[in-house]
Design goal:
about 425 residues; mainly alpha; 16 helices; 2 strands; globular; binds protoporphyrin IX containing FE
């Protein structure tokens, strides 16, 4: 896909560098001359947003760490000191805490795009799997970061989540104590969470490099799902994709800035402004919004299944809901990639999105009565979508006619809109 290099070093210095470390050639071939499908839409700009957010999180996080004290007696106060005494400390902290939320907004949109356009299908399986690894690392990083301010939700959230691991037979208690560094959330827990919270974003950055490498081997998909065939199917990455990405990122950053400056605590929980207290359990322990659908599925399992008790069942369902994503390339049996040409898949896809939103809402409600019943229904649909609908649809669905090439699809849309303009009553007609 990336083809032969078209880089031509023009000056003596650039020739000298090129024959020793051809970094400018690599940048030119990957981000300037690199051919991308000519019909990419804004759904393809979330990868750029994710790259920007990763940098924002690492930079703000490093400066925050300069002022933060990872000690149970000092952590809460050190965060308050950042907010009040450190120059622009409030801005750094709000950029970082809201940045985590916006990182997840972008990743959910990015994954949603992948599901809609069948981005995970051959030959992009490894690209997809690396994405799921990144997502898992993001979840772990977010969880450990939330513990650092040492508020009530930090403490009790960590107590609940590490408690899940004790559900595993034989090794459960051992894993739980290994994570905690003792028998309860305490100083050793804070030390290791701080250390790992600092380390994991760099591991994410490493996996992102592999992700982009894999992307450059297979090339991007596009809304038609038809692979690039001729040169007319593509345009150069710069200026076309660069500008589109820049506009997408600018709008995204505006919304992010709106939250940072006007609604900085909207996505957080007020209880986390109360210092951690091991003797006072909050009335409702709720995780950050981006974990809520999984939390709902965990609590949906209120019954034993054979020898598996409800607690272990819930934990298996929660972990299983993410692990299942690894197998997507093989669960989808359809020969057609994009949902644009798959009427039934499109319907089930949007139901899946609505179901995920519903599960997110249910995760924030008490686990009782109708809420539990709806969570059980939502969990069933979540797994049914991957394990039943995806494999069967590929066998029974009749897809719409697929264009022969990207160029044909683009010209068909253009001709249609030109014809529309010629219709009587159209403003420019
Ligand atoms: C830090 C997190 C991530 C970064 C920086 C990142 C970056 C990118 C970029 C720049 C692209 C190309 C532009 C685009 O299609 O948007 C891309 C494509 C892709 N990403 Fe990610 N990504 C991340 C996480 C993920 C996750 C969590 C998944 C899936 C679980 C994923 C799956 C994919 C796939 C399948 C493609 C190819 C899309 C296609 O061509 O159809 N990525 N990624």
């Amino acid at each position: 896909m990336s083809g032969h290099s078209t880089y031509q070093p023009s000056t003596g210095i650039s020739k000298w560098v090129d024959s020793r470390l051809p970094l400018p050639r690599m940048i030119h071939d990957s981000f300037i001359a690199y051919p991308v499908p000519r019909n990419l839409n804004y759904a393809y700009t979330f990868g750029a947003m994710l790259s920007v957010m990763l940098v924002v999180q690492i930079v703000t996080g490093i400066v925050l760490a300069m002022h933060y004290a990872a000690s149970t007696g000092l952590a809460f106060d050190s965060v308050e000191k950042i907010m009040r005494d450190v120059n622009h400390g409030w801005l750094l902290r709000y950029l970082h805490s809201n940045g985590a939320s916006f990182f997840f907004v972008a990743v959910y949109a990015h994954i949603g795009r992948g599901l809609y356009y069948g981005s995970y299908k051959a030959p992009r399986e490894i690209l997809w799997i690396l994405g799921v690894v990144i997502y898992l690392l993001m979840m772990a990083t977010g969880f450990m970061g939330y513990v650092l301010p040492w508020g009530q939700m930090s403490f009790w959230g960590a107590t609940v989540i590490t408690g899940f691991f004790s559900a595993f037979p034989l090794v459960g208690e051992w894993i739980q104590q290994f994570l905690l560094g003792g028998f309860a959330v305490d100083q050793p827990t804070l030390n290791r969470f701080f250390s790992l919270h600092y380390l994991l974003p760099f591991m994410i950055a490493g996996v992102v490099v592999l992700h982009l490498w894999a992307l450059h081997v297979t090339g991007q998909t596009n809304p038609t799902g038809v692979e690039v065939k001729t040169k007319t199917d593509t345009v150069a990455f710069t200026p076309y994709a660069t500008l589109k990405d820049a506009l997408g990122v600018a709008v995204f950053l505006l919304v992010y800035a709106w939250f940072v400056f006007y609604l900085p605590n909207f996505l957080g929980h007020p209880d986390n402004y109360i210092p951690a207290d091991a003797l006072k359990t909050p009335a409702h322990i709720v995780p950050e919004w981006y974990y809520l659908p999984f939390y709902a599925m965990l609590r949906a399992i209120t019954f034993n299944i054979w020898f598996i008790d409800s607690k272990l069942g819930g934990v298996l369902v929660m972990f299983g809901s993410i692990i299942i994503l690894f197998f997507l390339p093989w669960l989808d049996t359809s020969k057609v990639r994009s949902a644009v040409y798959r009427p039934w898949y499109k319907l089930f896809y949007w139901l899946f999105v609505a179901n995920a939103v519903m599960l997110g809402w249910l995760g924030s409600q008490p686990a009782e009565g109708l809420y539990t019943a709806l969570s059980q229904f939502g969990t069933l649909y979540y797994f049914g979508f991957f394990l039943v609908i995806m494999p069967l649809l590929g066998l029974f669905e009749t897809p719409r006619r697929i264009p022969n090439s990207i160029t044909e699809a683009v010209l068909a849309t253009k001709n249609k809109s030109d014809m529309e303009k010629l219709k009587p009553g159209h403003a420019s007609a």
